[in-house]
Design goal:
The chain has about 290 residues and is of the alpha/beta class. It has 2 domains: about 200 residues, Vaccinia Virus protein VP39 (Rossmann fold, 3-Layer(aba) Sandwich), CATH 3.40.50; about 70 residues, rRNA adenine dimethylase, C-terminal domain (Helicase, Ruva Protein, domain 3), CATH 1.10.8.100. The strands form 2 sheets. It has a 7-stranded mixed β-sheet, with helices on both faces. α6 links the parallel β5 and β6. The longest helix has 14 residues. The chain is elongated, with a radius of gyration of 21 Å. The mean pLDDT is about 95. The chain binds S-adenosylmethionine (SAM). S-adenosylmethionine (SAM) binds next to β1 and α3.
């Protein structure tokens, strides 16, 4: 089987199997070898690595992963792609294709079975309709992760990487940066995919922190505070917390906690750093 990472070979496979793209699964297949090389090199994959690929499609990137990694598990929801993958990956004996919804799969059990519970690498050209639940699921479920190298919508990559003062800064930036160091490694235009998406894309690598960069007594509380602050972007932090059904504090308790942080009481949530959200959650934790 020839490499698929170009338009001609992709079209041949699609025609052979009479495959119809399913919009609901976010199917945009890569057709550019430079982008594929860049993803593999940025992920730093070696023959020691077990790699989880989310959404292999017709197996374009999977072929590259099989050649570079020790073992690959590729989780694909669309059962129409399973016979195609059996064909395009027939030359490799180090890959297991799993026909499952990634959001329902027990990835911890998979990491245990395939990599003795040691940190795994995740590589994917993600289905954009579920980018955030996939990433947060990987971090929050305590799957042992070394790094996640993924193609996402450009705008989402910018949000993951930005800090206070940027219009892109928000709950996703803080959540990602609590768990990992984000780094955009390539911008990818729509013509690198078949069919072309309506948005620009970017490859971003999230390298898992060995330990979180801030000390937090209650992670759930910190994330509730973050959500409350960004739910109402143009409001002050105090109003955001006051209006949140998740935060059970009086107006006075909120004002005292903000002042104890050493910032103006009318500050907006979008001005706080991760470190300040961590401190605020520790102050609130002690006051309740
Ligand atoms: N990796 C291929 C490539 O780069 O050409 C395909 C990438 S395409 C953007 C996303 C893939 O994820 C599709 O094959 C789609 O069927 C699959 N997918 C969508 N939702 C999924 C889910 N919940 N679980 C697993 N795979 C999913």
């Amino acid at each position: 089987m020839a490499y698929l990472g170009n338009p001609q070979n992709t079209i041949l496979v699609l025609q052979k199997y009479n495959f119809n793209f399913q919009k609901k699964f976010g199917q945009n297949f890569l057709i550019d070898t430079h982008v594929l090389d860049k993803i593999i090199s940025s992920a730093g994959i070696t023959k020691d690595d077990f790699v989880l690929e989310i959404g292999p499609g017709i197996g374009t990137m999977t072929q590259y992963l099989c050649e570079n990694a020790r073992e690959v598990a590729a989780v694909e929801i669309d059962r129409n792609l399973i016979p195609i993958l059996a064909d395009t990956l027939s030359e490799y004996d180090n890959v297991e294709v799993i026909n499952e919804d990634i959001l329902k799969l027990d990835i911890c059990a998979l990491a245990e079975r395939k990599n003795d519970g040691k940190p795994i690498k995740v590589v994917a050209n993600l289905p954009y309709y579920i980018t955030t639940p996939i990433i947060m699921g990987l971090f929050e479920s305590k799957v042992p992760i070394d790094s996640i190298t993924i193609m996402v919508q450009k705008e989402v990559a910018d949000r993951m990487q930005s800090g206070p003062g940027s219009k892109d800064y928000g709950a996703l930036s803080l959540a990602v940066q609590y768990y990992a160091k984000p780094e955009i490694v390539a911008n990818v235009p729509p013509n690198c995919f078949m069919p072309r998406p309506n948005v620009g894309s970017a490859v971003i690598r999230l390298t898992r922190h060995a330990n979180p960069p801030v000390e937090v007594q209650d992670e759930k509380l910190m994330f509730a505070l973050i959500r409350a602050s960004f739910n109402q972007r143009r409001k002050t932090l105090a109003n955001g917390l006051n209006n949140s059904p998740e935060i059970h504090l009086s107006k006075e308790q909120i004002q005292e906690s903000i002042l104890a942080l050493g910032v103006p009481v009318n500050i907006r949530g979008e001005a706080l750093t991760l470190e300040q959200f961590a401190q605020l959650s520790n102050i609130v934790k002690e006051s309740i």
